[in-house]
Amino acid sequence: MKKLTLSILLFVCFLNPLLTNAQSAASYDRGSYIAKGDTLPYRILFPQDFDPLKKYPLVIVLHGAGERGNDNETQLLWGSKLFLKDTIRERYPAIIVFPQCSANGWWASNKFEEDSVTHKTKFIFLHDAPPSKSMVSLLGLVDQMLDKPYVNKHQVYIGGLSMGGMGTFEIIGRKPNVFAAAFAICGGDNTLNAKKYAKKVPIWIFHGAKDSVVPFTHSEAMVAAIKEAGGDPKYTLYPNDDHNSWNDAFAEPMFMAWLFSHKK
After folding, report:
1. How many other C-beta atoms are found inside a 10 Å radius of the C-beta of residue 81?
2. How far apart are CA 207 and CA 33, in angstroms?
3. Which terminus of the chain is more exposed, N or C, with fewer CB under 10 A?
4. Model pTM?
5. Is 252 exposed, middle or buried (0-12, 13-18, 19+ CB in 10 A)?
């Protein structure tokens, strides 16, 4: 009986995120950005009682490597539930967009190699590199959204986790005059890129001290680089988190208030 109970509990734990994702997917509308033969699927959530004659903040959330694909659903696994809370939707009416990177794509222009000792992936962050194919599409999607009459260009925000955190650093470097604020969870960047956005884009950086996939030292290096370039980043290190610090980041009591407090 104990083994059966444990099996049921494990099944429920596995199934719960999938059920939550399905519920989120039912609330977010489907969309696609198509240009030059490339397609970037995305999900979009409009404010309650949406009025196309009004202007709303825009929030773009970039997923991690595990949510890549073309089903236009998996990218909602982390973070989408936060923006569906009634209290959040009432207090911060905004347009929320979750694009989905292709199965073999990457938001940022990074290189990777295997550490000869640990055999873990080492991230090599590039300086002034050409944008990846997925980044080109993402930049196009941002421009397309900015053309919408109901988007408030003074309140455009972006953030992401893991691969999405890396993509966040890169895109604010490419469009520092567009984003009013950003958040990067367990990501990283080349420290030489910090000067592009240090003084222009307020950023909250999160990481887990026990991250076994993307070392927290990548975030700490960016915090130091941004400060050296004249910026004032907000930094939260979770001492007991592995590569799941997005759970605690999205649960921060002041997360939404901090994000929406910034305007261009």
Report:
1. 17
2. 31
3. N
4. 0.90
5. middle
Crossing angle, helix 163-174 and helix 133-146, to 10 degrees?
Answer: 60
Residue located via tokens 């991230």: 123
Spatial separation of the C-alpha atoms in residues 68 and 237, rounded to whole Å: 26
CA distance linking residue 172 with residue 127, whole number of Å: 14
Q: Cβ atoms within 10 A of the Cβ of 3, count?
A: 7
* pLDDT, position 121: 78
**Which of 140, 243, 127, 229 shows the shortest CA–CA distance to 185?**
243
- Alpha-carbon distance of 34 to 261, in angstroms, equals 32
Write down the CATH number for the domain with range 2-260. 3.40.50.1820
Residue 95 has phi, psi (to 5 degrees) of -95, 125
Tens digits of residue pLDDT in 193-235: 999 999 999 999 999 999 999 999 999 999 999 999 999 999 9
Structure tokens at 179: 């984003």
Sign of CA dihedral 251, 255, 256, 257: positive
10 contacts: CB under 8 Å, gap ≥ 6 = none
For the chain, what are the domain ranges? 2-260
